[in-house]
Specification:
Length: 643
């Protein structure tokens, strides 16, 4: 796990300094080693690298790595979990190796197979590989988007240059990118609470899509990204065959994810997903599996007792750590300063990662993906159930729909505050306006605000760029998926593409790398995802919300009563803390009219939202005020504003 950076095209002293600045900005991603590679001449490549040593801790794992025979060079961030199998295949073809690292396997695979190496990889990665024969660089990102890769085209006096890095902030650190908010990225942020690619928060910087790749010529460095893998859906197999295949891939993925030459542990919340990973680690034959849990003083958020029960049942070596409000407030500025792109989520992952790293771990396995793959969320139950109802009511006149919606919201919440409820029931009118279109229902249901309040709060020049909170091309791709498969499978693709691919994985990357921790997510191994998508709906999803198939395959011996409780999810008590010790900081930013207007927010609307939240009025969750707070803080820190 590392940080990479580089430049392709017209190389001059300014570009050399820019790559150095990107490396400096990514030092937290790789405190163990660093290096650079540069081709000769005024047109070529510069690769920069920061290393967090995980496999082959010797200098043999140093990057950038160059193949002395072909002259190919690589910088690589991530892990190739099937590198031993690929190494054997390459050795069978006559390749010799001088290290035990997966980086050399990837480099030799690129030298041997060219761009075809992408079809053979099982892992998480963002990398750049240079082929001197073709004078081209292959830039690629793993299939699920676990590791990010940002790029920007810059015009220099001698020609164009393409910059790339593991973090957006690193690209900004070059000083070559104007600090303007991207209106497309901002539009998706205000709807969702996170930026949806390929746009980013900064105009001129793009994010390579999950499963994305492109070849860039050093003579004509133009970005033309494409995809070598898509999320699905996939045709189901007979149930017995599909389930057997899935069990095999689950065990294989977890076994491969346990490879490490440094201390490794499993995050154990006590819920189904993390317990499944811990159980699979034990079943995979790993001795002395270490698990850890983060608890809170606030009883309503603490699940330590459940994690303890799972640990005892699996006989893991278990440790518990506590995160107090005082520690959260004291370290909040560091957490906020670590955010790579604005996001209302991810702070929880930062604090967990910090605690785990302080406890001596360098690698942690997480249960991310179980809900999305096996139907654990309410969306799998609520959206299909309400779809027919929404279609029927959608035939009513608009004026009548407005009246019905207002009456239902009053009945549900009672007297509203200055800002009406901004949760799912509060968005009933917006849901009814979708006429039962599944993707629109999903986006409206999980957006942060009603259309009406969003129009009051945001610059109208921004909102029109993402009418459903999605880039038009992505909306059409997901809508096409919805038309080609069942409702449950479509919702899974929505969750994996949006919540996982555009929010949770990106947040996990910056939050874990800030304290130099590698987080692995074996349930999101692409072979596991493809195997799950082959399982017929009834076996995969039913009973809805139970994740019965995952429980059956991953932890057949665990007492099922451990999980017979309402779904909680791992969240910080920000709802409580934002009204207590955090309140002055939020109040200060929300009172800054100049700052609010510079990022396209209407001060009066934001201030009404804040007062409504503080008053305890119904239907204003913490995320509704946290999203604008993080946006303001991020833009202020990085001096970014609407151009």
């Amino acid at each position: 796990m590392c940080g990479i950076a580089g430049a392709i095209g017209a190389i001059d002293p300014t570009i050399e300094r820019a790559v150095g600045a990107m490396m400096d900005a990514e030092v937290h991603r790789g405190p163990d080693d660093s290096g650079t590679y540069r081709t000769g001449g005024s047109r070529g490549v510069i690769f920069g690298f920061r290393r967090l040593a995980i496999l082959d801790l010797t200098s043999d794992g140093h990057q950038p790595m160059v193949d002395p025979r072909s002259g190919s060079a690589i910088v690589f961030n991530g892990e190739i979990y099937n590198y031993l199998a690929l190494k054997r295949e390459l050795e069978g073809a006559g390749t010799t190796f001088r290290s035990k690292s997966d980086t050399e396997v990837l480099l030799q695979g690129f030298a041997h197979w060219g761009n075809g190496v992408l079809g053979k990889l099982r892992g998480m990665y963002g990398f750049a590989a240079y082929d001197p024969a073709s004078r081209q660089v292959l830039l690629a990102r793993d299939r699920l988007g676990i590791k990010p890769l940002y790029y920007a085209e810059v015009q220099r006096p001698d020609g164009k240059v393409l910059l790339f890095a593991s973090e957006l902030r690193a690209v900004l650190a070059t000083g070559l990118i104007p600090r303007h908010l991207d209106p497309d990225g901002l539009a998706t942020y205000l709807w969702n609470g996170f930026v949806i690619g390929p746009a980013t928060a900064v105009r001129g910087v793009s994010l390579l899509p999950p499963g994305g790749w492109m070849t860039v010529s050093i003579d004509h460095p133009t970005a033309k990204p494409a995809r070598y893998w898509s999320m699905g859906p996939r045709s189901p197999l007979p149930e017995a065959q599909a389930v057997a295949k899935l069990e095999h891939e689950l065990l294989t993925a977890v076994r491969q994810h346990l490879a490490s030459d440094v201390p490794l542990g499993v995050f154990l919340s006590g819920g189904v997903d993390s317990s499944a990973v811990a159980s699979l680690a034990v079943r995979a034959g790993s001795r002395n599996v270490k698990t850890f849990h983060i608890g809170f003083d606030e009883a309503g958020f603490d699940e330590s007792s459940y994690a303890r029960r799972v640990s005892n049942a699996l006989s893991t070596e278990h440790a518990e750590y506590r995160l107090t409000q005082a520690r959260f407030v004291d370290d909040l500025e560091n957490a906020l300063s670590s955010i790579d792109q604005p996001t209302f989520d991810g702070i929880n992952n930062y604090f967990v990662s910090r605690v785990v790293r302080d406890a001596g771990f360098t690698v942690a396995l997480a249960g991310t993906g179980g809900d999305e793959l096996f139907g654990g969320y309410k969306s799998f139950r609520d959206l299909p159930r309400s779809r027919g109802f929404v279609k029927a009511l959608g035939l009513l006149p608009a004026a009548l729909l407005d009246e019905v919606s207002r009456f239902a919201v009053r009945l549900k919440f009672g007297r509203a505050g200055e800002v009406p409820p901004q949760v799912r029931w509060g968005k009933l009118r917006d849901v009814l306006s979708t006429s039962g279109d599944l993707l629109s229902m999903y986006q409206v249901s999980y957006g942060l605000y009603t259309r009406e309040f969003l129009a009051e709060m945001a610059d109208p020049r921004v909102l029109g760029r993402a009418p459903e909170g999605l880039p038009p091309a992505l909306y059409e791709a997901l809508a096409s998926t919805s038309r080609r498969t069942t409702a449950l499978s479509a919702i899974s693709v929505f969750e994996l593409s949006l919540f996982i691919g555009e929010r949770l994985l990106r947040d996990t990357d910056w939050a874990s790398m800030a304290p130099s921790l590698e987080v692995r997510v074996p349930l999101l191994d692409h072979e596991v995802v493809e195997a799950v998508q082959r399982v017929p709906d009834a076996a995969r999803f039913l009973p809805l919300g139970s994740k019965a198939l995952l429980r059956k395959l991953a932890m057949p011996t665990l007492d099922p009563t451990i999980f017979d409780r309402p779904k909680a999810g791992f969240v910080l008590p920000i709802e409580v803390w934002a009204k207590d010790r955090l309140a002055p900081q939020l109040e200060s930013l929300f009172a800054d009219r100049v700052l609010l207007e510079s990022v396209g927010l209407e001060p009066a609307a934001v201030q009404r939202l804040w007062r409504t939240f503080r008053s305890g009025a119904p239907g204003i969750y913490w995320s509704r005020i946290w999203a604008p707070f993080v946006l303001l803080h991020w833009c202020q820190k990085h001096r970014v504003e609407l151009g």
